[in-house]
Amino acid sequence: LPQVAADTIKPRLGLQGRAVILTFGLLEPDKGCGSIIEAMPAVVAAVPTALYVVLGATDPNSLAREGDSYRASLEAMVAARGLTQNVKFVDRFVGRVELGNWLEAADIIATPYPDLDQTVAATLSFAMAAGKAIVSTPYAYAVEMLSPDRGRLVSPGSPEALSAAFIELLGDTELRAAMGRRAYQHSRNMVWWEV
Question: Is the whole model's pTM more than 0.85, yes or no?
Answer without folding.
Answer: yes
